[in-house]
Amino acid sequence: MSEFRQDPVTDRWVIIAPERAGRPTDFPAEDRHFRRGFCPFCEGHEDRTPPEVDCIRPANSPGNTPGWTVRVVPNRFPALNREAAGPNGSRGLFQTMNGMGIHEVIIETPRHVMSMSDMDVTSVSDLMRMVCRRLRVIREDTRMAHATVFKNVGMAAGASLEHAHSQLIATPVIPQTVAAELDGVRRFRARNGECVFCRILADELDHKERVVWKGRYFAAFAPFASRFPFETWILPLEHAARFEEQSSEYLGELAEVLYTVISRIDSSLSGPAYNVVIHTAPFRERDDRLYHWHVELMPRVTGVAGFEWGTGFHINPVAPERAAAVLARDPVVPLSI
Amino acid sequence: MSEFRQDPVTDRWVIIAPERAGRPTDFPAEDRHFRRGFCPFCEGHEDRTPPEVDCIRPANSPGNTPGWTVRVVPNRFPALNREAAGPNGSRGLFQTMNGMGIHEVIIETPRHVMSMSDMDVTSVSDLMRMVCRRLRVIREDTRMAHATVFKNVGMAAGASLEHAHSQLIATPVIPQTVAAELDGVRRFRARNGECVFCRILADELDHKERVVWKGRYFAAFAPFASRFPFETWILPLEHAARFEEQSSEYLGELAEVLYTVISRIDSSLSGPAYNVVIHTAPFRERDDRLYHWHVELMPRVTGVAGFEWGTGFHINPVAPERAAAVLARDPVVPLSI
Questions:
Q1: Checking CA distances to A264, which of A50, B4, B102, B165 falls within 20 to 30 Å?
Q2: pLDDT tens by residue, A83-101
Q3: Domain count of chain B?
Q4: Prediction ipTM score
Q5: Do residue B305 and residue A158 have CB atoms under 8 angstroms apart?
Q6: Radius of gyration of chain A (CA)
């Protein structure tokens, strides 16, 4: 069973999850390329995953059979487990919590494709609606404080399987990254009387040099202090704390911007590894309306090395202004960095 | 010229360093293996690096010629630059600082080897003494607040060249990781009247289950809240704030424990990518004697994925107790995880 453990110096939490060591991988250590073998996520292989917990499929089609478009299953090698029990508390100097949580896999398409740019806007839109539905279900479990939805594409981004999928991990504590953002939001509001994300949006749209895309409900831009080359944030133009409270019309446009930006990243950088993370407010924080949900898209073309681990400073060799200039062009020109 | 930029939400700093994009790499994107080509760090190629700033070589041997054992050169593609100038301050919403700092490369051996386990204890000992010497020189530049010494081995650990080398980056600000550790040290001392690292050491040596190595001056153990499989910390047994104030005898034993632990990691995990980072006190902080310098060794056998970036929680599939049991054995048994 997995366990949360806290470092007594910095108070940072880690999840020790021995079950994860058994998971299969498309990436054999020897050659670092995908292994084209059996894929448990492909249509027709529904019996090779745990039974689905949610699905978009025709009304008359039985569960766990072909015919679906988006399929949600529990992770077979979960980092956290709904049934985890056991003591929370201190072990001498050290704080621990049992590994209680939820870990689901959202299979984005029945076809064996890798990047979101191999899908289409309708499929991405179905995916966004499913993420929304899962978050609404999971927040009903009052033991959960927050859920993180993320996507790893390519080995350098931490993916173990190639077939396009997202993951959802709900935790009984607010993750430290989200807590730090909430603190920042509170600090900025106390000083300036407004939401820091709303202010960044207004500034970026005003100056334009880092803007990648703008629609009716969303804008995408390369953040001023980008950690990664071609890092792109997607924010709703109107202040909103929670992804799962957005309407279907909003999610349709979100699918369009996601598909567009990822397609441009794939064509300018020859299909790099990347991570996508949805940052959304905790389920039940007192002042959680202050948060401004958003998506962070992080291409992984440079490594994270000793300096980053030792200092917390990322070194980014591509100025966000240059990244935005490339990504705002349509069609994009392939780039060598 | 490079630039520090601060994220207005979380206050984290990044370094935007466009010059870094031009650096050569042994890792072509297509096949992710080392390219065996010309190596500027090998003996005989001294004219292919910037002129050396320090060196261990026979007394009668001229600079920038063969015959050396450890050689220090400025980084040709520096993240930060001693001559950087320009405004520090705010650009509207955004804080910046010019990219002033020092970035040196310490070539660890004249031979084209990759891991520290391909060297010997004497060479590692020479390297430690050189690191010590560079830190003592660099701290004299009163514009510098701190220096981080680190080592990247293998592409997955962010190395761009194969030949064994360390890097030193001095910064005009205290890195956020070191600041967080110093805060933790202060908090723990205020509550418990002792150094948290001294207390961890005493606990680990008492319980033994995570201890990897113990000598006269140093101990190595797998930390309770390890972020990475086989993460190992090496601490001086006696409280000391600064690496660069250790005696030559201490550094000799440090070389022995580093060589031993890395050799065991290389043989148990078939030569994985890894990072080594020396965490040492800021040069001039008021209460910097409170810090306890140490080395963090991080094998990079698992990826850092969307969940880690979104939450700050690392998922580690190998319990530190298991890692220590493997690494404490000598000779080690190759392990498959």
A1: B4
A2: 988 778 888 899 999 999 9
A3: 1
A4: 0.92
A5: yes
A6: 20
